[in-house]
Design brief:
- The protein has eight helices and seven strands; from the N terminus they run βααααββββαββααα.
- The protein is α+β, with helices and mostly antiparallel strands and about 180 residues long.
- The chain has one domain.
- Strand 4 and strand 5 form a beta hairpin.
- Helix 2 crosses helix 4, helix 3 crosses helix 4 and helix 3 crosses helix 6.
Length: about 180
C-alpha cells in the first residue's frame, strides 16, 4: 500500500462542499492580490501550454491548481500532481503509481462523484466524458488540459475570470459559486 503524504487524521472535517465554498470565497476575496502575486511569478511552461490551448489566462489555471492541489514543499506552495480528494479528505502521494493505487482503492469504496484527482482536482463522477481510465487524471499534462477546459466552458465573454473559477466545482452557479 502506498503511503500518502500529509494524510490528515481521522478527526471530523467540514464537508467537501463547505471546504470548496470557503476556498472559492477566499480566492475570490483575495483575487486581486493573489492574481497580482501570480502575475509576478510566471506560471511553469506546462500551465502556459494548457492555458494557451484552452484560451484561458495561464495565471488563472495556475491559481486553480495552487488552490486545488497546493502543497508546501521546502517552504513553497506548489501544485502537487498526485493529489486525491476522497469524500472531502485530501490525500497526497509521493508517486503517480502510488496515487493510482490509492485512486483504485478509493473508487472501490467511494462514489466517483466524491473523488477529485490531480493538479486541478478533476471530479471523476462529473467528468467521465473527459477521460477513459481514472488514472489518466494523474497525468499532469492531461489533468491540466482538462482543468483548463473547465473554466473555459464556464467563462462568458466579457466576464471576470474569477466568476468562471467560482463555477469550477459548481457549474450550476448559485450562491456557493458566487462566493
Amino acid at each position: 500500500m502506498a503511503a500518502a503524504i500529509g494524510t490528515p487524521g481521522r478527526e471530523r472535517r467540514p464537508s467537501r462542499v463547505a471546504i470548496r465554498c470557503a476556498s472559492t470565497a477566499l480566492l475570490l476575496a483575495t483575487g486581486g492580490w493573489a492574481l497580482a502575486a501570480l502575475a509576478r511569478e510566471v506560471p511553469p511552461p506546462a500551465y502556459q501550454l494548457a492555458a494557451h490551448r484552452a484560451d484561458v489566462p495561464a495565471a488563472v489555471l495556475y491559481a486553480v491548481a495552487l488552490q486545488e492541489s497546493g502543497a508546501m514543499l521546502r517552504g513553497r506552495l506548489i501544485p502537487w500532481p498526485w493529489t486525491l480528494n476522497v469524500a472531502g479528505t485530501p490525500q497526497r502521494y509521493a508517486t503517480r503509481a502510488g496515487a493510482c493505487a490509492g485512486l483504485h482503492r478509493a473508487l472501490a469504496r467511494t462514489p466517483a462523484n466524491r473523488i477529485d484527482a490531480g493538479l486541478g482536482q478533476v471530479n471523476l463522477g462529473y467528468h467521465t466524458h473527459r477521460y477513459t481510465q481514472p488514472c489518466e487524471l494523474l497525468d499532469p499534462y492531461r489533468n491540466l488540459a482538462i482543468a483548463a477546459e473547465i473554466p473555459r466552458e464556464q467563462h462568458t465573454p466579457g466576464e471576470d475570470w474569477l466568476l468562471a473559477i467560482g463555477r469550477y466545482h459548481r457549474p450550476a452557479g448559485g450562491a456557493p459559486a458566487a462566493r
